[in-house]
Amino acid sequence: MRQFDELPSPLRQWMAQAALPWSPASYRRIWQKGIAEGADHSAILDRLSRAEAQMLARDGLRTGGLR
Fold this sequence. Notes:
Layout: H1 2-5, H2 9-17, H3 24-36, H4 41-58
Helix pairs in contact: 3-4
């Protein structure tokens, strides 16, 4: 839980609505890469949403839930 608490607030908020249970280390890695590339918080959160959508599509799921 400490790893989660140490994440930036916008990232914790995004995680709260995420469809997939990623580890805090995975979120942090993507977040830090985005920051290093000069992306703003919104762009990084969009990147996370796209990555999640791709994983759901790969697994045959949709972001709206199971059919």
